[in-house]
Amino acid sequence: MDHLSEQAIAALARHLDEAEARIGKELETAQRASSDLPVGEVEDEADVAFDTETKAMGEAMLQRHLAQLRDIAAARERIKAGVYGVCADCGSEIDYARLEAYPTAKRCTACQRHHERLFAPEAAA
């Protein structure tokens, strides 16, 4: 890979490590919080609504964290394969600044914008 030096890849890999550690801590915190929720009879509709919303938020957070962990694993695979920093769509280099801000990026900025326009929820409507 020509455009990213070994030092740049090592720095970006540290970003991936930091993100993975942060997500792990957030998952632990979420698991503790969910285990602190009251179990048993719910007293009224407000309690039912709160319980339902809390569970839904917890599930959404869990799904987001799992997706982030999958993205980190995929970025590490791209590093091993020697294609980290190469856009999966057009094959051009992904700007270092983009990788530094979003180390799991698999598309250059232009291709990511195009992808978001194609797959945005309102585009499906």
Please provide a written account of the structure.
The N and C termini lie far apart (40 Å). This protein has helices spanning 6-35, 45-81, 96-101, 109-119, 121-124. The chain is mainly α. The chain is elongated. The protein has five helices and no strands.
Blueprint (SSEs and pairs):
Layout: H1 6-35, H2 45-81, H3 96-101, H4 109-119, H5 121-124
The helix content, as a percent range, equals over 70%
Structural class per helix/strand content? Answer: mainly alpha
Low-confidence stretches: none
Distance between the termini: 40 Å
List its salient traits.
mainly alpha, 5 helices, 70% helix
Summarize the structure.
The protein has 125 residues and is mainly alpha-helical. The chain has helices at residues 6-35, 45-81, 96-101, 109-119, 121-124.
